[in-house]
Amino acid sequence: MKMKRSSLRNLTVFTGIACLLYVGIVFMVWTKWAAPSHLESQRNPAEPLRLSENEYKNQVRTLPDSRPNDCKLRTQPTQWFKVSIVIFITNEEVAQIESTLLSVLANTPSNILHQILLVSHRTSVTTDKYLDKAAADHKSVQVVQLKQDGELTFKSKIVATLTVVTGDMIVFMEADMECNRMWIEPIVSHLADHPQTVVIPVLDNIDKLSGKYIGTVKPVKTGFSWDLQFMHYEPTFTELAHAESEADPLQTPVLTGNVFATTKENIVSWKPVPFEGSLELSFYLWLCGHEIILLPCSRVGKYSAYSVSSLPVQQHVNKVADKWLGQYKKYFYAATDYNNPSTSYTDVSMEINDLKQIKKCHDFDWYMNTVVLDLFKPVGDLAAFGTLKSQPSSMCFHVEVNQNLEGLRGQCSPARETGIFQLDADGLLRIHDRCVTGETHGYVTMNDCNPDDKAQTWTITSKKQIMLKSGQYCLMHNTDPDRERKDRQVLMAQVCRDDESFQQFVFSNFFDLKKLKSSR
């Protein structure tokens, strides 16, 4: 009987220990997954953070050095300037804001960093409490709360901060970013030599789910489609071939506004310019004597940097078209549901014309020929223009050396000149002077253009099919039937079927031919 009681007691003790271990494991797992590890704070919240630059580095994770190797051989600026860093805060999580702030503090030398402004607008109580604590903890941090009703425009956020910015140079950035090592030095160096430019770090990608920091191999530039929304693309082969080094600065047609820097003197000169979004600002900068420069040696990570959802949607685009596009605005109206130019913008357009005369601005044709080049430039009356993408596979097609059309996954970039198509009013689907030719049940090839050739005249159906005008046959994305070609993706002419998704294609731009012809 004593042995049974003893065994029962031992079993009870063992069960209690097992329960405690189980609770401990559950707690450890819960704390592990409660927030992504790369955003977890590694400090005691009660400790002050008036630390040195090296001590701040202990508060952030070590990011991979994603710069080109040549960047590490570049000399540092010999003249230092006071830099103000403005972080715009809207609905980001506190953990993201803290990660952004600490990465700035850890990777910006103290002899450069003059002030950090945390600019908030209609933020939550939790966020406001964190911002107040950040200002109390960090001697270089100030909080600016914007009280305006409604949504703030891109310009109003910038102008509102100018009264409190005291640095010589200003960096504007969003609060879901992480600054990598040596990110600020190339910015200071370039602006010291070119104070009227606007510079942009290359964005590396931070995976939204895992938090993994993924370096961008090639710099990604930003252009626009003809409905005046942003689109990303890689530099052309010609640009890269002409560069002396992969670390050299690159021109980019527009800035998205996620992160950019310039001198305070330059920004003050923007005040009389009636721009609202970053696309309109980009047009003004290039046309009126400024440049927008991408710096491969400056790296900043952003969550989902190159997803479509990360690009701000441009508002009032018809107003932008009327003010800036000149002879090219016909393509905007043909690519959108907007009617032809509205008389309500007459006064604004006159104001812009006066501004252009005062500042001796170029016209938009100069911008297209000098900055944008042929990649986005339609010519004549077109039904469609740009990259040709298979809708179900998201694969874009380009011309091979043998004049067949091959699909390349992840290569929907206008930087590939062999992949920029235009469907003209005659139905010719061309790249330069070569046209898509569809052989019945055969490969689609590129041949000399001939508007009388029925195998070269195409139309776009309501089902997004590209169909020969003679009927029956449509372009179709196929895996090459020749097994020796190892799953090569090709275009073929096949019998049209409404239920066949691989006969559906998307161009970068679709145009209403009736609108284009009426705008002559």
UniProtKB/TrEMBL annotation:
Keywords (A to Z) from UniProt: Disulfide bond, Glycosyltransferase, Golgi apparatus, Lectin, Manganese, Membrane, Transferase, Transmembrane, Transmembrane helix
Alphabetical list of PROSITE patterns matching this protein: RICIN_B_LECTIN
Q: Report the pathway entry.
A: Protein modification; protein glycosylation
* Superkingdom in the source lineage: Eukaryota
Q: What is its EC number?
A: 2.4.1.-
Domain (Glycosyltransferase 2-like) ranges: 84-213
Gene Ontology biological process: protein O-linked glycosylation
Q: What is the recorded membrane topology of this protein?
A: Single-pass type II membrane protein
Identify the InterPro entries for this entry.
Glyco_trans_2-like (IPR001173), Nucleotide-diphossugar_trans (IPR029044), Ricin_B-like_lectins (IPR035992), Ricin_B_lectin (IPR000772)
Q: Which residues span the membrane? A: 12-33
What subcellular compartments does it reside in?
Answer: Golgi apparatus membrane
* Keyword Transmembrane helix tagged: yes
Annotated Ricin B lectin domain ranges read 385-505
Task: Tell me its family.
Answer: Belongs to the glycosyltransferase 2 family. GalNAc-T subfamily.
Q: Which PANTHER family match?
A: N-ACETYLGALACTOSAMINYLTRANSFERASE (PTHR11675), POLYPEPTIDE N-ACETYLGALACTOSAMINYLTRANSFERASE 2 (PTHR11675:SF119)
Official protein name in the record: Polypeptide N-acetylgalactosaminyltransferase
- Organism of origin: Lingula anatina (Brachiopod)
